Amino acid sequence: MRFLQVTELDGRYVAVLAETERPVPREAEVLVRVAASGVNRADLMQIAGRYPPPPGEPDIIGLELSGTTEGTGEAVCALVAGGGHAEYVAAPAGQVFPAPAGLDLVAAAGIPEAFLTAFLNLVVEGGLTRGATLLVHAGASGVGLAAIQLGKLIGARVAATTRTSEKLPALEAAGADLAIDAGRHDFVEQIEGRWGRDAVDVVLDPIGAPSLSGDVRVLATGGRVVVIATMAGARAEVDLALLMRKRARLVGTMLRARSRAEKAPIVARFTREILPHFTSGALRVPVDAVLPAHRAAEAFQRMRENRNTGKLLIAWPRD
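User: That's the sequence. What structure does it adopt?
Assistant: Structure tokens below.
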């Protein structure tokens, strides 16, 4: 089978379709013929040598995919800890779920990593409930746009930030009540100006160090900051006295590093509670671009340069 082998040369990505043996499913795995795979920043980190797969998982990059199961032809999506950017993937059975009826199978590849990350960190870790207020940083990313939609589906009031003014309409289209250009405005001032002080119950933060102190400032009593990445820095100063006064919680979390036993119940709950909303139209997959596998380098470069709004997908040939 073919798989993507991606390297970096002088600041540009080079992607080659290399050949390897088709994976043989182990116990509790399902062989999936891939229709499309989703590009994520974790891929860029792995290419750079900073984010290896967990022990026992494939070295091939790629964390999410859609396709059909070998033997039955069932249309599915899968969350994997490696191996996604290939023609075939042996996916853990507990991390495979049906592709939503009525949704294009290629577009469905944009569901697993983005929407499961948002669900895990808003609902399971963040305890977001109806009537709460949510702040989503990097709101125009795949995870960000998924989080905005999930927040509105739950019944929360949502603020979202982006550092690119051209991406503000995408935040509003996803349902954000307050879309903030963080490149021009202080997000704390924007939120306080609209909703007052101490207004936010849950913050979803993939930015890290530069935003953390502001996150704590906007929190309501008992609020939660859920840190899912450190795109702009991993070391930050925090006003611990303010954190204590607000009885706030600072939560660090990663999805990829969780064991298969941990992921399976998360995927099962997501399948029950969230997946039907794609068929109803309440949720949509925000796709920035779909590129064929032989042009995959363009997708990785587009993500690196922060030019995408929503998901970048690699389409695999079906002949």
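The chain has ten helices and 15 strands.
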